[in-house]
Structure formats: C-alpha cells, structure tokens
Amino acid sequence: MDPDDCEFGCGDGTNEAQDSDFPAVERSRLQEMLSLLGLETYQAQKLSLQDSLQISSDSMKNWAPQAPKDLPWNFLRKLQALNAEARNTTMVLDAPPDARPAEKESQMEEEIIYWDAADDISADIYSFSELPTPDTPVNPLDLLCALLLSSDSFLQQEIMHRMSLCQFALPLVLPDSENHYHTFLLWALRGVVRTWWAQPPRGVGSLREDSAVLSRAPAFAFVRMEVSSNSKSQLLNAVLSPGHRPRDCFWHRDLNVGTNPREIADGLVEVSWFLPSGREDLDVFPEPVAFLNLRGDIGSHWLQFKLLTEVSSAVFILTDNISKKEYKLLYPMKGSATKYYFILSPYRGKRNTNLRFLNRLIPVLKMDHSHVLVKVSSTDSAGFVRRVRSIVAHVARSPCRRLSLEEMAHAARKLGLRVDEDCAECQRAKDRMERITRKIKDSDAYRRDELRLQGDPWRKVAQVEKELCQAQWAGDPPDKGRAELRHRLLELRAQQNGHEPAGGVQEFITGISGPSLGEKQYFLRWMEWGLARVAPPRPRQPPETILTLRPKHCGVVDFSELLWPEPLGVEHFLREMGQFYEAESCLVEAGKLPASQRRFAHFPGLALELLLKGLPLELIDGSTLSTPLRWVTGLLKELHVRLERRSRLVVLSALGVPGTGKSTLLNTMFGLRFATGRGCGPRGAFMQLVTVAESFSQDLGCDHILVIDSGSLIGGALASAGERFELEASLATLLMGLSNVTVVSLAETRDIPPAILHAFLRLEKTGHMPNYQFVYQNLHEACVPGPRPRERRPLLEPPGDVSRAVAQMEKQGGGIRTLADLAFCDPEKQHIWHIPGLWHGVPPMAAVSLGYSEAIFELKRCLLENIRNGLSNQNKNIQQLIELVRRL
C-alpha cells in the first residue's frame, strides 16, 4: 500500500519511516489477507459506494460464496439487503464438474466449512498463527476490517449505516497491522442515527432522535487481559438482550466460524448502544448506554486500552490470571476517574496469586471487593447478567463521565490515533458548510431572504405554466388569453432572472463546483447533517396527508398553505439553482436574452455530478408540486452526454401513500438513499441512478436503471376532493407514464389509492402500461418466521366505492365488478406480493427481520427478470425519455 495514499479517500498520508520499525512478516499479514479476499487492487484506488451498488448477474442469484474472494461482495450484497446473516463467512465449495446432480448436492452439503470440519485432524489445528488459505473460512471480523481498509469514506459510511440497521456492533477504532496506524472512525459513524424514548424524571416522555456521533451517553468498556475463559462478546450480548430475546450484536465464538483465529482484527474496538423503547418489560436501562468491546489482549493493544480508560465510565476486565505482569500493566491507571471491575473464573486461574495482586490493585484503582465478580460456568448465567446490569445501571445513575463519539475523538487525537475526519478535504468541506449554516437562525426567514426565486415567485410561474399548458393541450386556436399568459410568464421569468444568487447559494454552488470530487461529496454530506440540525418550523397541526391543501376563495389551490412544513434541505439549494436556470432558459428561448449572455448554463452539469455520485435529485418540485421542465430536461441532456454509448435506460417507479414503506423498500432493494420517515422529509418525487455492470448490460437490455420515488406526492385523496384529487392523479400519471416498471406499495387496504387507479385507467387508453407489481407491506408485524413473498391479496375482489367512483370518472361505466374486469389487470400476469414486517422485535433495539430482507430480494429478482425478459415497456434511451417528459 502506498503510504502517501489516504486510507479514507484523502489526507496527508502516513509516515513511511514507522513501517520499517516492524518485521516484514508482520507487515505482510494484512497484505496476505487482502490478497486472499481479492481486495489488494483496492488499496491505491479505494472501493467506492458506486462500485458496490452496480447491478450484475449476481444480483439475481441467492448464492453462497464458494471462495474467499466471494466473501466481500457477498457481505456487501447481504448488507445492502439488510440481511441478518451478512456476517456469516461460511463457504460452499464447488463440486467436481463430472459429479452427478445428487452427488454434487451431497458434496456441497458436506463441504460447508467449519473450524472443526478439517480433513486432516493433526497438530496443525493448533497453529493459530497460520494465515487462512482458500480452503479455510475467514473470521468475520477480519473480513470487516479488510473491507473497511479497502473502502473509501462514503462506502465506509454506508457499511456503518446498514450495520446499525441490522443491530450489528459497529467498528469504532480500526486497526491497521500493516502500518500500525489505528484509526478512530468518526466520519464513518456520522451517518448513524439513533432513536430512543426519553423519559424525564418529571413530565411526559417523548421520542428523541439524534446522531450517534453527537449524543452523549455513559460508556462501559469490556476488555480481556491475557486469557479469559469467559466470552466478553457473549456477556455483552446477554446484557443488551431484554428478557429471553437473545441478540448477537457482537460476533462471538459460538457462532458459525466464530472460533476461527483473527488475523488482522485484533485491536479492533466495537461500539453498540442500548436504547430504551418506553416499555418497562423491555427496557434494561432507563437511558441510552454505550458498550465498547476491545478485541484482543490489552497488553498487546495498550493504546486502544488507554483510550477506553479515558472515555468510559467504567471498564470491565475479564481475565483468569492476575500476576506481576498484569499488575504492572494496570498500575499506570492509578488516579483515573474511571471505575474498574474484574470478572474472574475460579477454575482456570491461580487463586492465591490472583487474590494477592487484587489486594494490591484495590487502592491503585480505587476499588473495593464489590468490584470483583466471579463467573462460574455452572453459575446461573441469568443471575450473573443481572448483576452486571445492576452495576452498569448504578454507575449510570451516579455522576459519571458522559461523552459523545465526537468528544471521544478528541481523546483519541491526544493519544496519537488517527481520526478519519481530520483529512484536509473533509475539513475544508465542513468549514464551507458552517459558513452557510451559521447564518440560518430561522429557516422560514432564510428561505425568504436567501432562496428568493422560490416561494411566491415560483408558485406564480408554475400556475401560469399550468394554465398555458392546459390551453395548448385543449387544441383551441391561439387567442388573446394565451398571448397574455405567455407575456405574464416572460414577465415573471424576467423578474427571477433579475436577481443574483444570494450569498448562501453562491457558497453552495462553489462547494459543488470544486475540482476535487471527494471534497464535493464531503460537502454534500456535511450540508445534509448541518441543515438537519437547523430546527424546522413547527407544524400547526399534524395533517392526515402531506397534501392537505386549502382552496382559496377563487378555487385555486394555494400551495403555500401546506400544513406540514418541509424541513430545509439540500434540495432547496438545488431548486434555487434550477429556477435560475429555468428563468434564463425561458428568456433565451423567447429571444429576450442572447445565448452569449447566459450565466447558469452549467448548472445542470453540476447537479448531474451529484446524481452520478448517489444523491437523489428532485424530479417533481415538492413546493409547487410541478415539474421544472427545462431544468429536468437539462439534467437529462447532460446525462446523455456523460453516458455516451451507455444511455439505455429502464425507469422504475414506486408509488403509494406516505407511510407504506416504499422508500425503505427501494433503499433495501438497490442500496439507495431516499428519505424515509413519515411526514418529516422532503415532499417532492426524487430520482436516483443505478448502474448496470457492462458485463451484464447486454443480457439485461439496459445500461442504467433510473429509480423514482413518489415521496409524499400521493396522499390518498378521494375522487370527491376535486382539484386535490386531480392533482394527485396527474402526478401519478406522470410518474407511471415515464416508467417501464411500477411498484405500487399498499398497506392494509384493499383499494388501490384512487389517484393511482385513475392513472392506470388513463394510461390504459394510451397503451402505455408499465409492468406493475402490487406490494402489500405488513407495517405492524414485528416478527415473521419466514418470508411469504407472493400471496394473492383480495385485489381481485369487488372494488370499494372509491374505485368505482374513479372508474366512473373515466367513463368505464357500471360494468366493472372487480379489478379483473379492467384490461390492464390480467390475473395471469398480475404480481401481488406480501412483504413481512420490517422489524424483528420492538424498535429501537429491533433488527431488520430476515423475512423482510429475503422477500425484498425475491421482489428485486422478479423485477430484474421482467426487465431482462422484455415484460416491461420498451426500454428507452435518454433522448426518448426527454421527449416523453415533455409530452407528459
């Protein structure tokens, strides 16, 4: 590895001189592991998030890894799908080519590799220092460390985010046995958000949400000194598990391949949290508590141990022996404010020696005899766990150290550990974000003063464009009214074009215009977090849907009266850029502005860079619920130029009312970043681009998949709601009309949302009907033993009043008795899916259920098969998509 390369995408490099202080055999251990896993090529050029999300032929296979080189990709694929078995590194070997099918199946079953399944039982099994070979399994912690060392900063963040959803323990200090530089993963953990029930001593409790990096909590470290017959990780899992619900948060030796020796993961520090839910029967602790776990012996990893003693409220030391060596190791901790507890095994250690040195350590570490716990294997394990919990609860209740991960990083720096966030690009991006956000005192005032082209100006333009479009499609001959509308539109656009981008917008444009792609990505992430901490205006009342609109006295919908305020986000800055581009383009088209005087023609190219790097871009503006046509077509034209020969597209959309889990479904299926959470995110429809691997694009029939999330646009308005229903139906028609494949997300309802049914009926007339999948998601099912991916719901039963009313609006008459009577609803071609509940257990400590993950994978495989087999509408190139956007 080039020591001048930043391991996290940027930075000042490492000190080459320090490498030579260590034996060559030690330096080669990491390289051997990377070579075994096929990751050595990702040291100079790190593995990126986009690399991990590419769709390949393997995306359609539920396959078991057959060699160590398969393990990183298997882990990433399963983690993307939030699969609880992602950490399992069990491999299945290929059978000989000439084996008969029955023999092949039998042989594959026999060749599942476990530590105790070696062919030759000999003294070699004790050679723990031997590196793994292609025929032996890899310890999951070695795989995780190797993958993180081979990933750029943004893939590291994604890995951490998805591990947290699976309730896996997260790496906090990453060891590097090659260079002996250990890294505190502050940046990688910034994307992790924790939710818990906060119950004050007096008053009403409430649900709180905060970054795992910023929230403070007492931390308890568990470490091993020399040899311990007790497992730290199993003990931690038991402490974290309420009642009889075991959780394997920390990987331990009783799991598959858990006894395999660690080759590069010793020195790893992991973190996990207990988060209360507000239920007394489940809440082990009344407040959030962090648990830290050091892998390996503290004598070999003194730096990590020293860090834990400085950031923890208490340290639990598991050991079988305390001798003079261990006494000298712990003596420097004299005077520490941290509390220390010992967990001993009475059968393995030397009893008298242990007692002698314990008595000497008691005054040094300010302990008493209650700080020594004896864990006997035959002892009631539940009782011992209760005792450990009571100690943790007692310490947490008393005045003790409470640090955030950000504050822990300060301690790490003082000890000489690297902090991944300290690289120059990241810090420059952070400084730029702070120059923008420090000026935001009130988000409403900021939008009015800085985002000047939005609000009333954009709403007036959208209304005029809508009226002009309706007049053109009506087919009436040109008249004075249309001329007046065009004149009014040019006046409004000229007013917009007369403004200059405000200071915050200019700073934002500079942030995404820099020559360094890494710095742009850092800046966008910092902006997302910085704006999220700017308090949004408080809603006047919780609406039934986000599209609760108040008609004015003249009957025109007033979009400014949305009752659920939209939080300030990156999309608002991009909307402002879009409006500058729209206004300028409109004037150029009308001949009111020479093309040579354009100042904002490069804006779509800047936004496209963000789309290509995984940022969702807005297709339908959430503030006016209209499409900025020139901006969207400008983006697509830039995309066409950028992709060149690889411009074949499939458009996949997901529609449904808010809260039906469609955004989570898309994120799980393709590893995307659509906003989730009911009633708290942006309102518009967003799109993201998923790349198809070149080796698979010919087979699949496309080069990219454009995924569209309808967000909160479809609110379930009834046909009797008049203009509000017509608005939702028009938006649904637009999204489905652009799509080759549409996923309709349903939740505990027999009826398709009226606007979506209306769109189906409209598109049926045009002959442009996407391949569709109805997905029923069980939102309240906490735990399902297994997936039931396809199950016929009563969608073919007689429709309710809403569906009949919609059908009558489209003049289908009274002949519709069931949805099967509609031409588009062919029972033989219809795909109706049942997706089990998302959570296994009760949030916030619940993990994603295996049934949910496996059902989403089956749905994804079905969608890709339909695309490959041509069951979707004819795939488009980008030019065709541009024309379709204009027509719709």
List the helices and strands and how they pair.
Blueprint: H1 16-19, H2 24-36, H3 49-53, H4 71-80, H5 101-110, H6 140-149, H7 153-165, E1 170-174, E2 183-184, H8 186-189, E3 193-198, E4 206-211, E5 219-224, H9 232-240, E6 269-274, E7 289-297, H10 302-311, E8 314-319, H11 324-330, E9 339-344, H12 351-364, E10 372-374, H13 381-397, H14 405-414, E11 418-419, H15 424-437, H16 443-450, H17 456-473, H18 480-497, H19 503-511, H20 517-532, E12 550-551, E13 557-558, H21 570-589, H22 603-612, E14 617-620, H23 629-643, E15 648-655, H24 662-670, E16 685-691, H25 694-700, E17 704-709, H26 723-738, E18 741-746, H27 754-766, E19 771-777, H28 801-809, E20 832-835, E21 839-840, E22 847-848, H29 850-868, E23 876-877, H30 878-887
Parallel strand pairs: 2-11, 5-7, 5-8, 8-9, 9-10, 15-17, 15-18, 18-19, 19-20
Antiparallel strand pairs: 1-2, 1-6, 3-4, 6-7, 12-13, 14-16, 15-23, 16-17, 21-22
Helix pairs in contact: 15-19, 15-20, 17-18, 18-21, 22-23, 23-30, 24-29, 26-27, 27-28
Describe this protein with a few key phrases.
single chain; 888 residues; alpha/beta; Rossmann fold; nine-stranded mixed sheet; eight-stranded mixed sheet; 30 helices; 39% helix; 12% strand; elongated; disordered N terminus
